[in-house]
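Slack export, channel: ligand-projects

TW: morning all. Re-posting the request from yesterday since it got buried. We need the structure predicted with the small molecule present, not the apo form. The ligand is flavin-adenine dinucleotide; the SMILES is in the block with the sequence. No rush, but it would help planning for next week.
GE: picking it up
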Amino acid sequence: MTNAPPTEAERRRLGLDAPITRRDFVNGSLAGAGAAVLSATSSNVATALGTARPRPPSEPAAGAPSAAHDTFTGYGGVGDYAQANGNTWPVVQAAHRLRDGKYDSAALANAKPAGDFDLVVVGGGIAGLSAAYYFVKATRARARVLLLENHAMLGGEARQNEFIVEGERLLGPQGSNEFSVPERGDGSLFDRFFTEFELPREYAWQSWDPKLRPLRFARNNYSNLDGFQEGQVDIGYFFGAAGWRKNVWANALTDTPFSAAARRDLLKWRADYAPTSDADSRYLDTLTYKHYLEKVCGYDPAVTRMVEPIVGLLSGVSTDAACARLGRDLVEAPDSAMPISFPGGNSPFARALLRKLLPDSLPGTDFSTLMYGPVNFEALDRGDQKVRIRLSATVLRVEHVDGGAGRDPLAITYERGGSLFRARAGTVVMASGGWINKHVLADMPSDLRAAYDQFLYAPALIVNVALRQWRFLYDMGITACRWFDEGDGIGYCCNIRQNMVTAAHAPMLHPDHPAVLSFYMGFPIPGLPAAVQGATARAKFLVTPFLDFELRIRRQLMTLFAGRGFKPERDIAAIVLNRWGHARLIEPPGFHYGVAGRPSPLERVRAGYGRVAIGHSELNGDQHWTSAVEYGKRAGEQAAAAV
Ligand SMILES: Cc1cc2nc3c(=O)[nH]c(=O)nc-3n(C[C@H](O)[C@H](O)[C@H](O)COP(=O)(O)OP(=O)(O)OC[C@H]3O[C@@H](n4cnc5c(N)ncnc54)[C@H](O)[C@@H]3O)c2cc1C
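GE: finished. pasting the full token output, ligand included:
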């Protein structure tokens, strides 16, 4: 697929001039779209990795106010999450000012007082909200808590996009989307979480008109990535010039263009799903996944090519950089139970925590308002509350003061609305990831800094395309797609889901009704060291404007569905990008268990220091909503013990 600017004829074919909701937010004109197409050329990457900070063409001049929807962030949908789709440009700018030391020490010293608290939590994702919740519980609601979050909405990577299409309200996940319901009474933290937060364990799903052709849907956005749940989902596989095949694994790959050797080894790879013992995991942690596939198992390189984008999304980097332990764990028993998703991904876990912490902020007690209810922002930061939450507040510096001996021995400086503030606290939970913590924790010990220096991250992009109708998929008999290309397209999979419904909210599942088509993708770069892959891909992110991604998504959709009844100008109602610059903690060989007697850096970071507890989902290496709750709770309880 070319990255060249579109010709007039292509613009018309792609529907680039047709009315969609993003138009209002990118200056009302796409006249510059062609010129804005930067694409991920090597010269851009070189610039981005050089001394100059990557700069999108639309970056406002220094000091200029950031437009709510700039040409980096693009359209953010409607509702409470409209200003918080992925990492928005204002948040990226503030984080980079912090990274680059742009806040001068005199200004930091003159920050306005912002109150004294027993606990300050940095980060309002599931981990931060859990830290606050379990701290409040442990201190019997007697202590004062301030939670600071740099985005305009809570939830972190578990936020949702909202659309209104043809009068229908639709949600899509921004990132974190699938979960499994814990067994009632199994005694796990997550069983207790479901009980404590009154989350249902059984759900109603959109119904499918029996008069329509039978069609199977995923109830999450992952079942089509790897085809492991293919027995429950109708997945189309696009092989370029060789065309489409459906549910290829069901036929043991017989009518696919793979060679006989590739077919044989792909089937062997897929059958290699037995759980690994601890000893196996430790061994697999010493190898790259590519080495394991090609040298240990002796598979045809077609296996590596098949799994490359899956590993790239879930581990952040390519198979020649990610450890084999992670790759091996991806393989699931064929037709294992399908994990499920709320309509807005895992955002209800964050919302449930918010509702328990500050009931007025998310009015209602039922499941429907938990997913769809509007947030009462005014109730987040009332002066008379023990728990206070401030959004759009970027924490810049956390340090022990007065030798750490006073009643509130920590100073927390943050930027909000262009002004600097300083709160004091007895203890701090850092529920933000290592990429930011190492810039914020001004007095962290050198061994903690050295451990954090081993934490590397890779980006991911989740694109939600709101469709007015999806009859083109219906006519093909599929609800999910996987495609194979030589790196010239964008992404590798997309799907529409069968959504959970409630009595109050049940959008229709029908090919002539709106639906959200979600794309999940990472940006692995085989051949580069793990450390360079994440930074290179992130640099591309920073120089790629919304319109460039939009163009590439439209071209990809045309590559897949042109001639199949898809008409972009008619079918696309809105496109939202959710960019996560540090989506995944990269785990090269040796990271998880350590190498040659050197402990894993995870162990050192988990220990925190002084009165600072660290509690982010990355701390078990396997980012998940459950690890966010687990490590948030651990840090909140550690903080409670310290006050
Ligand atoms: C693309 C993607 C897909 C995923 N899919 C799944 C899935 O299907 N299932 C699953 O269970 N998990 C999934 N995850 C993992 C997900 O990370 C966890 O589920 C969980 O949401 C992480 O919560 P957290 O609180 O640890 O971190 P985060 O969600 O990262 O929250 C940290 C918060 O701190 C804020 N912050 C950072 N720096 C500062 C600062 N200086 N000042 C103030 N605030 C700051 C951040 O903006 C963020 O809001 C996915 C993640 C991604 C990126």
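GE: first-pass observations. The chain has three domains: 8-97+158-210+457-585, 110-154+375-455+588-642, 223-330. The CA atoms of residues 116 and 189 lie 32 Å apart.
TW: perfect, thank you
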